[in-house]
Amino acid sequence: MKLSIIGTGYVGLVTGTCFAEMGHEVTCIDIDQKKVDRMKKGECPIFEPGLEPMMQSNFKEGRLHFSSSYDSVTTADAIFLAVGTPSSEDGRADLKYIFGACDSIAPYMKEGSIVVVKSTVPVGTGLKVLEHLKGKTTKKFFVVNNPEFLKEGSAVEDFMKPERIIIGCKEQEAGDLIEELYEPFNRQVKRTIRMSNLSAEMTKYAANCFLATKISFMNEVARLCDILGADVEEVRHGISTDSRIGSQFLYPGPGYGGSCFPKDVKALVFTAKENGARFKIVEAVEEVNKEQKTYLFSKVKKHFNDDLKGKVFVLWGTAFKANTDDVRETPAIDTALALHKAGAKVRIHDPEAADNFEKLMAEMNIPVDQFENKYDALNGADGLLVLTEWKQYRAPDFEEIKSRLKNPVIFDGRNLYNTKKVQELGFSYYAIGKLTKR
Q1: Are β-strands 368-370 and 409-412 bridged in parallel, bridged antiparallel, or unpaired?
Q2: 280-337: per-residue pLDDT in tens?
Q3: Percentage of the chain lying above the pLDDT 70 cut
Q4: Nearest-angstrom CA–CA distance, 371 and 375
Q5: Which of these three, 133, 167, 195, is where a domain ends?
Q6: CA separation for the pair 269, 286 (Å, rounded)
Q7: Quick one: 162 and 141 in the same domain?
Q8: pLDDT in the model for residue 438
């Protein structure tokens, strides 16, 4: 099939590249000409494991194209909208990019075009897209909701080996064509699930908000463990063996971030209020997460008796999670801001996201010093804060850390280290809900 993908962020670029890998002819469209030029040179604008080589090979073989023009829409069997839907100040999803994309494709759409909403959008957006496009073209077309379920850091694998493929549509023929498009991903097990547009949109929000709920729940359990003297790692293992609960998303940490959970939680809360209801559980999830993002800082503050002025702290990890360069809503933002307000200086190291984080901090007028070597960042510093679970942070040379730090203290926001081992080496050690004194 011939496909046009509007938007080349994490979702759009992964979607386009993976469809090209399956043999389809794909044109990825972006209004940023510099970004388009970079992709034509084989440069991937985002860090996502496995994406760049797949992108390069499909581009060289002529299945994957990049353009700032919408000409490819004239022959496209399906047009995927994969643009951003950021949060507005009141929490609602901002759909200006969705409707802007609709305005751009309308003059080029052929008879029988299928417009696929891949972006995460509030319930009812598919119908709004339908009405909006009806005012822009007289040609027959269909609107299908096909939400993505990609985890940054494993997005390529998630797309190539999906757990489910949601197709929300009204017309049988449109649903059949999109199901045919995904047929290569159904070879062993049928993964496509057909439903209404409204249900497809709700499924996406419900899934993300439920996962966010698990994270906030475990973070609250961890905070209570700190108060009562229980160990959250033991508790986590104890409950994860229950098949009704499972083991995923039960790891306490510095709070969730990224491009999905924060805005999707806000959007579902807003949608409920807009329709005269309250989603009390999800409201609490958001509040817990907001508190969690400064929880590790509170441990720093307590250890140094509220006197952080002039002290230097190192953040290992600035991405919101490992295997991505995404710093949107990362807990490192709140941590750096709190340290700065307390008069401390901040150093950072991250194998992929450091540049993005430094740029973001500059926009907030918060000075940070970036280091290419994680140990060099520690020289003469007063403490180390681990905020991202990158593999290279999981088994560091603790003697090296101790020799570089002015004060041998580690604040482990990801519970990466063995408490007994670190303490025997002479460190003051703080984690999230782990028992550090027996």
Answers
A1: unpaired
A2: 999 999 999 999 999 999 999 999 999 999 999 999 999 999 999 999 999 999 999 9
A3: 100
A4: 9
A5: 195
A6: 9
A7: yes
A8: 57
Same domain? For 133 and 227 the reply is: no
**Into how many domains does the chain fold?**
3
| Same-domain check for residues 82 and 127 | yes
Cα–Cα dist 377/374, whole Å: 5
Give the type of residue at 128: K
Q: Which domain holds residue 418?
A: 293-430
349 & 221 share domain: no
Answer yes or no: is 436 within a domain: no
Whether 108 contacts 71, CB under 8 Å: yes
Average of per-residue pLDDT across 182-206: 92
Residue 65 has pLDDT above 70, yes or no: yes
Q: Give, in degrees to the nearest 5, the angle at Cα 365 between 360 and 369.
A: 70
Looking at the structure, tell me whether residues 90 and 103 fall in a common domain.
yes
> How far apart (Å, rounded) are the C-alpha atoms in residues 115 and 66?
19
Residue 91 has a pLDDT of 87
Model confidence pLDDT, tens digit, residues 225-277: 999 999 999 999 999 999 999 999 999 999 999 989 999 999 999 999 999 99
Q: Which amino acid is at 168?
A: G
Instruction: Quote the crossing angle between the two packed helices 197-228 and 280-292, to the nearest 10°.
Output: 50
Whether residue 232 sits in one domain with residue 124:
no
Both 306 and 220 in a single domain?
Answer: no
Quick check: is 437 in a domain?
no
Query: Do 135 and 108 form a contact (C-beta atoms < 8 A)?
Result: no
By the 10 Å C-beta count (0-12 exposed, 13-18 middle, 19+ buried), 230 is classed as middle
Q: Which residue has the tokens 């933002």?
A: 333
Residue 189: is its pLDDT beyond 90? Answer: no
Does one domain contain both 144 and 8?
A: yes
pTM: 0.93
Torsion sign (Cα): 244, 246, 252, 254: negative
The two structure tokens encoding residue 136 = 């822009």
Contact (CB, 8 A) for 167 and 153: no
pLDDT digits (tens, 9 = 90+) for 114-125: 999 999 999 999
Helix segments in 259-376, DSSP class H? 261-274, 280-292, 295-303, 331-341, 354-363
d(CA 103, CA 362): 35
> Is residue 204 within 8 Å of residue 211, measured between CB atoms?
no
As a whole number of angstroms, the longest Cα–Cα distance in the chain is 74
Enumerate the active-site residues: 260
Residues 77 and 231: their CA atoms lie apart, in Å, by 55
